[in-house]
Write a structure and sequence with these properties.
globular, transmembrane, about 290 residues, mainly alpha, transmembrane helix
Length: about 290
Protein backbone atom coordinates (compact mmCIF):
# COMPACT_ATOMS: atom_id res chain seq x y z
CA UNK A 1 0.00 0.00 0.00
CA UNK A 2 2.89 2.33 0.82
CA UNK A 3 4.48 1.76 -2.58
CA UNK A 4 1.12 2.40 -4.24
CA UNK A 5 0.86 5.78 -2.50
CA UNK A 6 4.49 6.69 -3.24
CA UNK A 7 4.08 5.67 -6.87
CA UNK A 8 1.01 7.85 -7.35
CA UNK A 9 2.61 10.81 -5.60
CA UNK A 10 5.46 10.45 -8.06
CA UNK A 11 2.92 10.13 -10.87
CA UNK A 12 1.73 13.65 -10.08
CA UNK A 13 5.29 14.74 -10.89
CA UNK A 14 4.61 13.59 -14.48
CA UNK A 15 1.86 16.19 -14.72
CA UNK A 16 3.94 18.80 -12.88
CA UNK A 17 6.73 18.27 -15.42
CA UNK A 18 4.34 18.63 -18.34
CA UNK A 19 2.87 21.76 -16.79
CA UNK A 20 6.24 23.32 -15.96
CA UNK A 21 8.31 22.61 -19.07
CA UNK A 22 5.82 21.06 -21.52
CA UNK A 23 7.58 17.68 -21.62
CA UNK A 24 9.37 14.99 -19.66
CA UNK A 25 6.29 12.89 -18.95
CA UNK A 26 7.47 9.63 -20.51
CA UNK A 27 10.97 9.80 -19.02
CA UNK A 28 9.37 9.94 -15.58
CA UNK A 29 6.49 7.50 -16.10
CA UNK A 30 8.56 4.51 -17.24
CA UNK A 31 11.04 4.41 -14.30
CA UNK A 32 8.21 4.95 -11.80
CA UNK A 33 6.19 2.05 -13.23
CA UNK A 34 9.20 -0.29 -13.43
CA UNK A 35 11.17 0.49 -10.27
CA UNK A 36 8.44 1.67 -7.90
CA UNK A 37 5.30 -0.17 -9.01
CA UNK A 38 7.12 -3.33 -10.12
CA UNK A 39 5.60 -3.49 -13.61
CA UNK A 40 7.62 -5.51 -16.19
CA UNK A 41 9.44 -3.17 -18.61
CA UNK A 42 7.57 -4.16 -21.78
CA UNK A 43 4.19 -3.75 -20.10
CA UNK A 44 5.39 -0.51 -18.49
CA UNK A 45 6.38 0.94 -21.88
CA UNK A 46 2.92 0.25 -23.31
CA UNK A 47 1.27 1.68 -20.19
CA UNK A 48 3.52 4.76 -20.43
CA UNK A 49 2.25 5.35 -23.95
CA UNK A 50 -1.34 5.38 -22.72
CA UNK A 51 -0.61 7.60 -19.69
CA UNK A 52 1.51 10.19 -21.49
CA UNK A 53 -0.70 10.11 -24.59
CA UNK A 54 -3.84 10.81 -22.58
CA UNK A 55 -2.24 13.61 -20.53
CA UNK A 56 -0.80 15.13 -23.72
CA UNK A 57 -4.24 15.04 -25.34
CA UNK A 58 -5.66 16.90 -22.35
CA UNK A 59 -2.82 19.39 -22.70
CA UNK A 60 -3.88 20.11 -26.29
CA UNK A 61 -7.14 21.69 -25.09
CA UNK A 62 -5.75 25.10 -23.99
CA UNK A 63 -3.53 25.24 -27.09
CA UNK A 64 -6.55 24.45 -29.26
CA UNK A 65 -8.53 27.26 -27.66
CA UNK A 66 -5.61 29.62 -28.30
CA UNK A 67 -5.52 28.45 -31.96
CA UNK A 68 -1.96 27.13 -31.55
CA UNK A 69 -2.58 23.70 -33.11
CA UNK A 70 -1.74 23.21 -36.77
CA UNK A 71 -3.94 20.30 -37.82
CA UNK A 72 -2.50 19.96 -41.32
CA UNK A 73 1.07 19.65 -40.04
CA UNK A 74 -0.08 17.37 -37.23
CA UNK A 75 -1.65 14.91 -39.67
CA UNK A 76 1.25 15.04 -42.17
CA UNK A 77 4.05 14.70 -39.61
CA UNK A 78 1.90 12.56 -37.33
CA UNK A 79 1.27 10.00 -40.08
CA UNK A 80 5.02 9.33 -40.26
CA UNK A 81 5.45 9.17 -36.48
CA UNK A 82 2.41 6.90 -36.09
CA UNK A 83 3.79 4.49 -38.68
CA UNK A 84 7.15 4.53 -36.91
CA UNK A 85 5.56 4.03 -33.49
CA UNK A 86 3.57 1.01 -34.69
CA UNK A 87 6.64 -0.51 -36.33
CA UNK A 88 8.76 0.21 -33.26
CA UNK A 89 6.22 -1.49 -31.00
CA UNK A 90 6.10 -4.55 -33.27
CA UNK A 91 9.91 -4.73 -33.18
CA UNK A 92 9.79 -4.47 -29.38
CA UNK A 93 7.51 -7.53 -29.16
CA UNK A 94 10.06 -9.71 -30.96
CA UNK A 95 11.80 -12.25 -28.67
CA UNK A 96 15.27 -10.93 -29.62
CA UNK A 97 14.46 -7.50 -28.18
CA UNK A 98 14.92 -7.97 -24.43
CA UNK A 99 13.54 -5.73 -21.72
CA UNK A 100 17.11 -4.94 -20.61
CA UNK A 101 17.97 -3.68 -24.09
CA UNK A 102 14.90 -1.44 -24.10
CA UNK A 103 15.76 0.03 -20.69
CA UNK A 104 19.38 0.64 -21.73
CA UNK A 105 18.23 2.40 -24.90
CA UNK A 106 15.80 4.41 -22.79
CA UNK A 107 18.62 5.48 -20.46
CA UNK A 108 20.78 6.55 -23.42
CA UNK A 109 17.96 8.69 -24.81
CA UNK A 110 17.50 10.23 -21.38
CA UNK A 111 21.18 11.14 -21.28
CA UNK A 112 20.94 12.83 -24.68
CA UNK A 113 17.82 14.75 -23.65
CA UNK A 114 19.47 15.81 -20.37
CA UNK A 115 22.62 17.09 -22.09
CA UNK A 116 20.50 19.01 -24.60
CA UNK A 117 18.42 20.62 -21.84
CA UNK A 118 21.50 21.60 -19.82
CA UNK A 119 23.18 23.09 -22.89
CA UNK A 120 20.12 25.13 -23.80
CA UNK A 121 19.77 26.46 -20.26
CA UNK A 122 23.46 27.30 -19.80
CA UNK A 123 23.09 30.64 -21.60
CA UNK A 124 20.17 33.08 -21.62
CA UNK A 125 18.25 32.83 -24.89
CA UNK A 126 15.79 35.37 -26.22
CA UNK A 127 12.15 34.35 -26.30
CA UNK A 128 12.11 34.41 -30.09
CA UNK A 129 15.28 32.34 -30.36
CA UNK A 130 14.51 29.23 -28.32
CA UNK A 131 16.09 26.95 -30.93
CA UNK A 132 19.48 28.64 -30.88
CA UNK A 133 21.26 25.44 -29.84
CA UNK A 134 19.67 23.25 -32.51
CA UNK A 135 21.55 22.80 -35.80
CA UNK A 136 20.05 24.68 -38.72
CA UNK A 137 18.83 22.37 -41.51
CA UNK A 138 20.58 22.35 -44.85
CA UNK A 139 18.17 20.80 -47.30
CA UNK A 140 16.36 21.59 -50.50
CA UNK A 141 13.21 19.65 -49.71
CA UNK A 142 12.80 19.97 -45.95
CA UNK A 143 9.49 18.12 -45.89
CA UNK A 144 11.38 14.93 -46.79
CA UNK A 145 13.61 15.42 -43.75
CA UNK A 146 10.51 16.17 -41.69
CA UNK A 147 8.91 12.86 -42.65
CA UNK A 148 12.19 10.97 -42.13
CA UNK A 149 12.66 12.41 -38.66
CA UNK A 150 9.03 11.67 -37.88
CA UNK A 151 9.55 8.03 -38.78
CA UNK A 152 12.66 7.81 -36.60
CA UNK A 153 10.99 9.52 -33.65
CA UNK A 154 8.02 7.19 -33.99
CA UNK A 155 10.20 4.07 -33.95
CA UNK A 156 11.84 5.27 -30.72
CA UNK A 157 8.41 5.94 -29.26
CA UNK A 158 7.28 2.40 -29.98
CA UNK A 159 10.53 0.85 -28.74
CA UNK A 160 11.01 2.66 -25.44
CA UNK A 161 7.88 4.73 -24.86
CA UNK A 162 9.55 8.14 -25.22
CA UNK A 163 7.07 10.64 -26.62
CA UNK A 164 9.72 12.52 -28.58
CA UNK A 165 8.58 16.04 -27.70
CA UNK A 166 12.20 17.19 -27.41
CA UNK A 167 12.71 16.19 -31.06
CA UNK A 168 9.26 16.99 -32.49
CA UNK A 169 9.22 20.69 -31.57
CA UNK A 170 12.51 21.62 -33.30
CA UNK A 171 11.56 19.48 -36.31
CA UNK A 172 8.29 21.35 -36.73
CA UNK A 173 9.95 24.76 -36.37
CA UNK A 174 13.11 24.19 -38.41
CA UNK A 175 11.83 21.79 -41.05
CA UNK A 176 8.12 22.54 -41.12
CA UNK A 177 8.31 26.33 -40.74
CA UNK A 178 5.77 26.21 -37.91
CA UNK A 179 5.82 29.09 -35.37
CA UNK A 180 7.09 28.12 -31.92
CA UNK A 181 3.74 28.47 -30.12
CA UNK A 182 2.01 26.34 -32.75
CA UNK A 183 4.85 23.80 -32.67
CA UNK A 184 4.38 23.23 -28.92
CA UNK A 185 0.62 22.75 -29.21
CA UNK A 186 0.94 20.63 -32.36
CA UNK A 187 3.62 18.43 -30.77
CA UNK A 188 1.24 17.47 -27.95
CA UNK A 189 -1.32 16.28 -30.50
CA UNK A 190 1.37 14.33 -32.39
CA UNK A 191 2.53 12.70 -29.14
CA UNK A 192 -1.07 11.58 -28.56
CA UNK A 193 -1.15 10.11 -32.10
CA UNK A 194 2.15 8.31 -31.47
CA UNK A 195 0.90 6.86 -28.22
CA UNK A 196 -2.20 5.38 -29.85
CA UNK A 197 -0.21 3.78 -32.68
CA UNK A 198 2.50 2.44 -30.36
CA UNK A 199 -0.05 1.02 -27.94
CA UNK A 200 -1.87 -0.77 -30.77
CA UNK A 201 1.45 -2.37 -31.71
CA UNK A 202 1.83 -3.78 -28.18
CA UNK A 203 -1.82 -4.74 -27.71
CA UNK A 204 -2.29 -8.51 -27.53
CA UNK A 205 1.39 -9.23 -26.89
CA UNK A 206 1.68 -8.12 -23.25
CA UNK A 207 -0.37 -7.99 -20.07
CA UNK A 208 -1.72 -4.64 -18.92
CA UNK A 209 -2.84 -3.29 -15.56
CA UNK A 210 -5.77 -1.13 -16.64
CA UNK A 211 -6.67 0.11 -13.14
CA UNK A 212 -3.08 1.26 -12.54
CA UNK A 213 -3.05 3.07 -15.88
CA UNK A 214 -6.29 4.88 -15.04
CA UNK A 215 -5.11 5.94 -11.59
CA UNK A 216 -1.78 7.17 -13.02
CA UNK A 217 -3.63 9.19 -15.67
CA UNK A 218 -5.74 10.84 -12.95
CA UNK A 219 -2.67 11.58 -10.79
CA UNK A 220 -0.67 12.99 -13.72
CA UNK A 221 -3.61 15.10 -14.87
CA UNK A 222 -3.97 16.58 -11.39
CA UNK A 223 -0.25 17.38 -11.38
CA UNK A 224 -0.53 19.55 -14.48
CA UNK A 225 -2.51 22.16 -12.51
CA UNK A 226 0.20 23.14 -10.00
CA UNK A 227 2.81 22.68 -12.72
CA UNK A 228 1.19 25.26 -14.97
CA UNK A 229 0.74 27.61 -12.01
CA UNK A 230 4.37 27.36 -10.82
CA UNK A 231 5.66 27.91 -14.35
CA UNK A 232 4.61 31.55 -14.03
CA UNK A 233 7.08 32.18 -11.19
CA UNK A 234 10.10 29.98 -11.97
CA UNK A 235 12.49 31.03 -14.79
CA UNK A 236 12.40 28.64 -17.75
CA UNK A 237 16.20 28.33 -17.93
CA UNK A 238 16.43 27.30 -14.28
CA UNK A 239 13.64 24.76 -14.76
CA UNK A 240 15.28 23.13 -17.77
CA UNK A 241 18.69 23.01 -16.11
CA UNK A 242 17.34 21.44 -12.91
CA UNK A 243 15.27 18.93 -14.85
CA UNK A 244 18.29 18.12 -17.04
CA UNK A 245 20.41 17.21 -14.01
CA UNK A 246 17.53 15.21 -12.61
CA UNK A 247 17.36 13.25 -15.88
CA UNK A 248 21.10 12.56 -15.63
CA UNK A 249 20.60 11.04 -12.20
CA UNK A 250 17.65 8.88 -13.29
CA UNK A 251 19.49 7.75 -16.44
CA UNK A 252 22.50 6.73 -14.34
CA UNK A 253 20.20 4.75 -12.05
CA UNK A 254 18.61 2.91 -14.99
CA UNK A 255 22.02 2.13 -16.48
CA UNK A 256 23.25 0.69 -13.16
CA UNK A 257 20.12 -1.43 -12.78
CA UNK A 258 20.52 -2.95 -16.26
CA UNK A 259 24.32 -3.18 -16.57
CA UNK A 260 24.38 -6.95 -15.99
CA UNK A 261 21.34 -7.76 -18.18
CA UNK A 262 19.33 -9.25 -15.30
CA UNK A 263 16.78 -10.87 -17.61
CA UNK A 264 19.41 -12.78 -19.52
CA UNK A 265 21.02 -13.90 -16.26
CA UNK A 266 17.68 -15.06 -14.93
CA UNK A 267 17.02 -17.13 -18.04
CA UNK A 268 20.49 -18.64 -17.96
CA UNK A 269 20.00 -19.74 -14.32
CA UNK A 270 16.86 -21.66 -15.30
CA UNK A 271 18.40 -23.43 -18.29
CA UNK A 272 20.66 -25.82 -16.26
CA UNK A 273 17.73 -26.76 -14.02
CA UNK A 274 15.59 -27.62 -17.05
CA UNK A 275 18.39 -29.70 -18.54
CA UNK A 276 18.78 -31.66 -15.30
CA UNK A 277 15.03 -32.26 -15.09
CA UNK A 278 14.92 -33.43 -18.72
CA UNK A 279 17.89 -35.76 -18.17
CA UNK A 280 16.40 -37.21 -14.99
CA UNK A 281 13.02 -37.80 -16.65
CA UNK A 282 14.53 -39.86 -19.47
CA UNK A 283 17.12 -41.78 -17.43
CA UNK A 284 15.38 -42.59 -14.16
CA UNK A 285 14.00 -45.85 -15.59
CA UNK A 286 17.55 -47.19 -15.86
CA UNK A 287 18.12 -46.66 -12.13
CA UNK A 288 14.79 -47.93 -10.85
Amino acid sequence: MTLWIVGHLLATCIGVSLGLIGGGGSVLALPILVYVMGVPPKSAIAMTLVIVGTVSLLGVIPHWRAKNVNLKTAFIFGSATMLGAFVGAKIATLPVVTASFQMLLFAIMMLLAAVLMIRRSSKPVAADDKLAFYPQPVCKYCWLWLMSEGLGVGILTGLIGVGGGFAIVPALVLLGNVPMKQAIGTSLLIIAFNSVAGFLGYLGHISLNWSLMLSFIVAASVGTIPGAYLAQFVPANRLQKSFGYFLLAVAAWVLVQNRHHPQSAQVSRHIPAKIVQHYYKHTKKYFS
